[in-house]
Amino acid sequence: MRRLDIDRAKGLAITLVVFGHIVARQDPAHVHWYQPLRRAVYAFHMPFFFYLSGMVSFLAGHVRVLPAGWARLAASRVRRLLVPFVLMGTLIIAGKMLAARFMFVDNAPRSLLAGLIDLVWNPARSPAYSLWYLAVLCALSLMTPMLAWILRGRLVLVIVVFAALELANPPWHLYLADFCRYGLFYGLGIGAGALGTRWTGWIDHWRWPLLALFATGFAAIALAGHRWPFDARLLVFGVLAMPALHSLVRISWLSSDRTLVTIGRYSLMIYLFNTIFIGLTKGLLLHVTSWNGDHFPAFFAALMLAGMLGPIMLKRTVLRAFPPLDRMTE
To answer: Quick one: pLDDT at residue 188?
Structure first.
């Protein structure tokens, strides 16, 4: 049974992802409001996504799959997460190489082979690094049932293991750094899913204090967060954001609105294609004018619309006609 509060939360989370992708590696000049907001958003939006993913994984029964079902689960997760990761990564790399001949392109690859190697081995240099969530989520979703089985189903110990990984300092190769950095939030989502109505009742009861703390933290990071280490911001604010934002999307007036639910149900499609639509729109607009200073608000609105509506329209008008691609992006 679908949880509409989770769909709304996914809609909010993917909107924040698109917001963060508006500017990639080169900031617009004389724009002073976007970067502080982006810094604050980056302190919690992916922890919130992993929290939701952990909760969905528990509710779907993936966490407690026994050894006899691990191969089937692995095949399902690879098909759902790694296949889109590889296909979209290849498409983005090839597309950037082609587009770079005609327009400005952020982080264009040196060659197709170099781009594919970076996609897997050197994520920090990957031309398609925006897809990292899929690779990390696949690894987490395969590791968790093994951990749960080894630890005899004690989910608290599973969360402890993920918390311990926060202390590791692995290399960036193969997304190991992201795996260790975000595993705790996935584990906490599993714990929230296991608590069920006790968790949702608690966040509903404490909604306004949680949202007040969240708003205070958001303002503090936007104004002075550059002075704090990124991992510290991510850990503290990421944990705080999980109950606050989940409680936010459960407010009664939001529950009656279908906008976030609709966006949430297209969240994978938006995640896969938003950077392509943003990049194409940005490249075309930069042929007409700069995005510096007073021009940036119009750029921002256009790029947000492109990143959100472009993938949805592509899904509805093109991918629906190709059942394998339609299922892959559902």
So the answer is: 97
